[in-house]
Structures are given as structure tokens and as C-alpha cells.
Amino acid sequence: MDFFIILVICLSCLILLSLWNGSYAKQKLPPGPTPPTPLPIVGNILQLNTKNISKSISMLAKDGPVLTVYCGMKPTVVLHGYEAIKEALIDQGEEFSGRGSFPMLDKIAQGFGVGFSNGERWKQIRFSLMEALCLAEALKKTDASPCDPTFLLGCVPWNVISTIIFQNRFDYSDQKFLTLMNSPWIQVRSGFLLNLYNAFPFLRVLPGSHNVFKNYAIQRSFILEKVKEHQESLDMNNPQDFIDYFLIKMEKERHNQHSEFTMDNLIATIWDLLTAGTETTSTTMRYGLLLLLKHPEISAKVREEIDHVVGKNQSPCMQDRSRLPYTDAVVHEIQRYINLAPTSIPHAVTQDIRFRESLILKGTAILTDLTSVLYDDKEFPNPEKSDPGHFLDESGNFKKSDYFMAFSAGKRACAGEGLARMELFLILTTILQNFTLKPLVDPKDIDITSVHKGIGTIPPFYELCFILV
């Protein structure tokens, strides 16, 4: 009985504290959705569909484009629509450039690396990615065989990133390579239980969460092994890859107490590159091929353009992109339509800031509803339909759009955007130059509905045949 009384008292205190904090925050933050008001402890979680957060936000945002949603007891300011997101991420980019808390990945990154660091640490480390972009190589062609494309499409970005970081690629049958690839992150981040973990990080015993940390331990061990090899063979005057450049920078700044070029940041940054730079690209392309199977007339038109501009006897290169407007439009439309990261990763404000009619306190989480931009029906008529015409003018020339925020926007836009754009373009053009995509069912029967919509969008399972042209 005593234990029950103590439990009731503790829960009552938590509820009162939650109500007090909520009341205090509401005096400063943008208004929340009405009705109902956030519940004690759980906040607005019951109003959010964890499989499609963006759809939930669209419904809540009927009260206005800037609102406060409580994920548990923590307030998150949600930005909906192009104008609000542009005003925050671009017009006031510095103030909104912080990285918001994401407990599952915070525990792994511990504030290091590029994706989850803040302040001076983030600014110093980001430059090194530009070095990585200079080392990117041409992509290998996929084999002509009927298959589930997941593995083959995953191998390409993994080997590109591996070449940049480690100066070597892996054979597709290499056991270490297979182990590393079998640690998917978009699917993990989309799971209901892990979304619950992020709302209530004290629930560390949730089923499935241990797999995330187990995967990270495997990857970290591999990274440490590679770094050690580089330390033993380092030539200060002849850097060969990303790790060499970073180690040299560490040596040059070893007397600088404020330098963020440390071993912890090296390991975390490599992990950022391996996870964010591989599965996102392969998932985008896998979904893209599914869309092309659904719309064979689009892939036929891309191949016709490639044959006319590039020909069949030389491989496409990035210089060809400006001469392939329809192909470029298809790549952009794939990214717009699949909406890979509907709400991106949370931002945070770096200082107290007046935003429109609200005061947002330093450290407050900011969630950007990128779906509201990528699916804006004024910018992209009939946005629920995959149509390359969204990025073409009346003359068939490629048309840029400020609403294309597939990589987010502002100072926290995807640091690997340039590399990802190159990979997506070269993968698509290489495949369609050499292969016809043959579905195993009639195109009209192909289901292109995503399986999960949490932080990441996943295509349904499918198989196809790559028929050599």
C-alpha cells in the first residue's frame, strides 16, 4: 500500500509539473492546435499518427502555419508551408540552425559529428565534407538480372562513400561489407516504438531499441579499425582520403584547446557519412525505379533523351545534366514525390527569438513540415501525381523551384546534397542508358504507396528485371 501511495504522489507531481510547464510555455510559444489542449505528460502524442507525422501536422496546421505541439512534455514548434519554413530556415537561418534533440540518435552521436552537433563544433567540422565531394568517383553499373534492387542499389552509394572515406571499395560478397549494409537506418527511425523512445527517452528498455545500439556498435568497431590503419600509414604530405585529411587537421590543431578536430568527432563524422550518405540515396533510387515501373512512358522518354544527347557509346557524366532537362526533371520529381524525410530531423533555435507574433526560447525544438512545401498544389499542380512536368517550363527546359526542399533548406540543409545529387543523376542515367526496366506485373497493378512514413519514407517491396538494351 505504501508503494502505491508513493506512486500516486509521484504521478501527481509529474502531472502538476507538466501543467505548470505547459502553462508557462504557452505564454511565449505559438498557440497549439485546438481542440483539444495537450494532455499532461503525453502532450499531443495521441493526435499524431506516427506512421504519417506529416499528415497529422497538416490537419493540426489548419489553425495556422506556426503552432506548438507537445511530444510528451517537451514543446516543439512546427512550421507548415513554404512561407513559414523559408522565413525560418533561410531568412533567419542562423537563429534556426541549431540541431534539435533526437534522443535515440543523441545517445549514439553524443553531440559529435556533423548531423547532430551544435555551435562551433558543427561549424568547424562541416568544411571537411567539401573535401569529400572532390573525391567522388563514377558509379558502377548494376548487373543485368531479375532481382530485388535493394542490395544492388545499396552497394553503389556504400562504395562511393567508402572510396571517399577509406580510399577503397568493397567487393559485393565481402562479409564486412554485407554486415555493415545490413544495418538499415531509415526503417529503424520510422518505427513506432523508437518514435515513442524519442518522446520518452527514459524508456530505454523498449523492444527493438537494443538493435539500434547493437548496429551502431558494429559500425563503430569497423570505423575504429579503419582509423587505426590510417594512423599507422599516414603521410602528412600526401593525404589519400577523408580520414587522412581529418587526421592531418587534428595534428595541425593539437595545441588548440578549442579545436573540434578530435577523435570523437572523426568517428562520429564518418558514421554520419556512412549512415546518412548511403541509405538515403539507395532508398530514393529504389523508390524512383518503382515509379518508373509504374510509368514506363517516363523511362522511355528519359532513354530517348539520353540516346540523343549522350549516345550509347559513352557513359553519362555530370556535365551532361544541363543538356538533359527532362532527365533532370525526372530526378527532381522522384525526390519531390517520394518525400523521403517528411519532417526532416528537428532543428532548434540558437537564441531567444521573435518569430512572427511569438517568442521562441533558446533550445526550443523546431519541426519543419517539408511535405507542406513539396506537395504545395499552387507550386506543383496535382501534387499527388508523379509528373516530371512540375520541373519543366512550356519550352521543355528545366525549371528550378524554390519549393524543392527535398534536402531541407538553410544552414542545416543536407551537407551531402551535392554528392547525393550526383549519385542520383548518374545512377538513373547509367541504368536507363543500358537497361529496360521490366516489371513482373502489369504497371497498372503496381502499388507505389509507401510502407512507413515516420521520419523516413520507405517504398513497398518489389522485384523487376533489368533487360540489357
TrEMBL record:
Q: Which GO terms describe its molecular function?
A: heme binding; iron ion binding; oxidoreductase activity, acting on paired donors, with incorporation or reduction of molecular oxygen, reduced flavin or flavoprotein as one donor, and incorporation of one atom of oxygen
Name the cofactor(s): heme
**GO cellular-component terms in the record?**
endoplasmic reticulum membrane
Which stretch is the leader sequence? 1-25
**InterPro entries, alphabetized:** Cyt_P450 (IPR001128), Cyt_P450_CS (IPR017972), Cyt_P450_E_grp-I (IPR002401), Cyt_P450_sf (IPR036396), Cytochrome_P450_fam2 (IPR050182)
Q: Name one GO biological process term.
A: monocarboxylic acid metabolic process
Q: Where in the cell is it found?
A: Endoplasmic reticulum membrane; Microsome membrane
Q: How does it sit in the membrane?
A: Peripheral membrane protein
Protein name according to UniProt: Cytochrome P450 family 2 subfamily C member 76
Q: Which organism is it from?
A: Rhinopithecus roxellana
